[in-house]
Specification:
By secondary structure, this protein is an all-beta fold. It is built from 2 helices and 41 strands. The protein has a 9-stranded antiparallel beta sheet, with no helix packed on it. Strands 24, 27, 28, 30, 35, 36, 37 and 40 form an 8-stranded antiparallel beta sheet that branches. Strands 2, 4, 5, 7, 8 and 10 form a 6-stranded mixed beta sheet that branches. The protein is globular and about 75 Å long.
Length: 543
């Protein structure tokens, strides 16, 4: 075997399925990443002369959306089964190794920019017998020139007049397909999350075309009015009888799917689906939202049926509010009883004491009586929500207050760590010192009573910011005196603080959509949250 002359990290691959190693490039330039692999036949010999093709994960044959032709790479393995691609830009890729006869292997890789020291990576894998997929699409009206495309691979197979198609030379893996036509009147059909197993045949039967709707994400001056680019953003989609026909979908919304403009499936979470009331709230994670753009869109699909395929991890809060994106706690107040679920994989579920579920800004909210109501996220005193004065974090919450004249607690980890509260008839964000009896405070005049108000507190080292309804109202971080040094022993709470020395009353009003992130969210991110989530949503347009 040829030796690899550069520093590398060997990634062991699970042989029963394709894997997704994450590969880091330079902190400012991911174009210096090098990927190398050594491939074997099942008998242990080198897989020499095999075709190697690298394509972006969302690539489709004949697609005109490819932004960088350099992302398309092809080579063949040498006599030692080795291949190498240099200067790879950031993104998600599929690398298919195929001997053109009977066996193949698929790598799925992610090139990011986390660590400048991991610029080279060596992979290895064993070619396995082809997987085969046969499908049938119910075509009601005759359509000429139908094809089935495979995301991330160089595949385009014909669909016959009966709607049948066969792909018999696939590497083992899970795939998304797209049925397209040369006809401009044909609406593409997406078939997602189909698992193809080596040496086996997967049958996709009776795929029925459903319905689709284009959802514009308007960030121009006529919409959400942001200028910068926002990534990994959970977009709130509100459905009602004016923009969606609930009778055309499953009673629980289980048939809905979302894709980006290139057809790439998007993760989503159904917060509430009330078929009888014809109302629903769905969070969709969008990879990139550009500023000052009134044409960008995602697509929603529903009503399609198939006898195979699965949702995978697409329908779940932990995929939308990913801890890898900084989300450490998200509480929607949907379906609440004695517990309020945390949508992240941390599962910091809250225990409610006399917090009543009522109609909120986004589905349900929690109503506090100003006397005995509170919510405690047990087990959060230490760990991921335990931020100090030198840490970076963002806390946000929607409030609908019945009273601003009395000092009342909103959310936080107590009067001696960090909190949002109503104090002296102002909105107050305070971060306390763990070393001395002082803190830093940001203030804002409160909004009117009986109105939903979005509060966001951002801490970044010694800098501190308070936003009200998407606008930064204070960035001064005034130094204040405190009774004692910081105390980290309290759990995160909403509506009450457990400090015995506290003079604050419990909250009186409604609370919705509490979030905590271990990142300092940008002004554009914060404004987009407000513009999207407020009652008169200015981001989302249905077409």
């Amino acid at each position: 075997m040829k030796s690899i002359a550069f520093l590398a990290v060997c990634v062991a691959l699970v042989m029963m399925r394709c894997s997704t190693p994450q590969i880091s490039g330079g902190t400012t330039d991911t174009g210096n990443v090098r990927v190398s692999a050594v491939m074997y036949h099942f008998d242990g010999s080198f897989a020499a002369g095999a075709s190697v093709k690298m394509r972006p994960e969302d690539y489709l044959v004949d697609s005109d959306t490819l932004s960088n032709k350099n992302d398309l790479r092809e080579t063949v393995t040498d006599s030692d089964g080795h291949f190498q691609f240099d200067s790879i830009t950031g993104g998600s890729y599929c690398i298919e190794i195929n001997d053109g006869k009977e066996a193949a292997f698929l790598f799925r890789i992610i090139i990011d920019s986390v660590n400048e020291y991991r610029k080279d990576t060596v992979l290895s894998g064993t070619l396995k017998p082809y997987a085969k997929v046969e499908g049938n699409v119910n075509i009601h009206d005759p359509v000429d020139h139908l094809y089935c495309l495979v995301y991330g691979l160089e595949r385009k197979v014909p669909v016959d007049s009966s709607g049948n198609f066969v792909i018999d030379n696939l590497p083992e893996g899970t795939y998304n397909f797209k049925i397209v036509s040369d006809s401009s009147t044909f609406k593409p059909i997406h078939i997602n999350d189909i698992k193809a197993t080596s040496g086996s045949e997967t049958r996709i039967s009776n795929v029925t075309p459903g319905f689709s709707k284009r959802i514009i994400l308007n960030t121009a001056a006529s919409g959400a009015a942001i200028n910068g680019r926002v990534t990994g953003f959970p977009v709130l989609i509100r459905l009602n009888s004016t923009n969606f026909n609930f009778d055309s979908s499953a009673a629980d919304g289980s048939d809905i799917r979302f894709t980006d403009s290139n057809g790439k499936p998007l993760s989503y979470e159904i917060e509430r689906w009330d078929n009888s009331a014809k109302e629903a709230e769905v969070w969709v994670k969008v990879d990139t939202i550009n500023g000052n753009d009134s044409t960008q869109y995602i697509s929603m699909f529903w009503g399609a049926s198939t006898e195979t395929g699965s949702e995978g991890e697409r329908a779940g809060g932990s995929a939308v509010f990913d801890t890898a994106d900084g989300f450490q706690g998200v509480w929607h107040f949907s379906g609440m009883g004695s517990k309020v679920a945390d949508a992240t994989q941390n599962h910091f579920d809250g225990s409610a004491n006399e917090v009543w579920p009522v109609a909120g800004l986004i589905g349900s909210s929690g109503e506090y009586d100003g006397k005995k109501s509170y919510l405690t996220m047990s087990g959060t005193a230490n760990g991921k929500l335990n931020f100090g004065e030198t840490d970076t974090y963002t806390v946000s919450v929607w409030i609908y207050s019945y009273d601003f004249t009395t000092d009342r607690y909103l959310v936080g980890k107590g009067n001696n760590q960090y909190d949002l509260k109503i104090k002296d008839q102002q909105i107050c964000f305070t971060q306390y010192s763990s070393r001395e009896a002082r803190g830093t405070q940001s203030l804002s005049s409160p909004p009117a009573r009986f109105q939903w108000c979005h509060l966001t507190a951002v801490r970044k080292g010694s800098s501190q910011y308070l936003y009200v309804n998407g606008v930064c109202t204070d960035s001064s971080a005034k130094v204040i005196s405190a009774v004692s040094t910081g105390n980290t022993s309290n759990d995160f709470e909403a509506g009450v603080q457990s400090d015995l020395s506290s003079t604050l009353e419990t909250y009186y009003g409604k609370i919705d959509e509490i979030r905590i992130c271990n990142r300092a969210m940008s002004p554009d991110w914060i404004k987009l949250c407000f513009m999207n989530q407020k009652e008169s949503d200015l981001l989302v347009l249905f077409k």
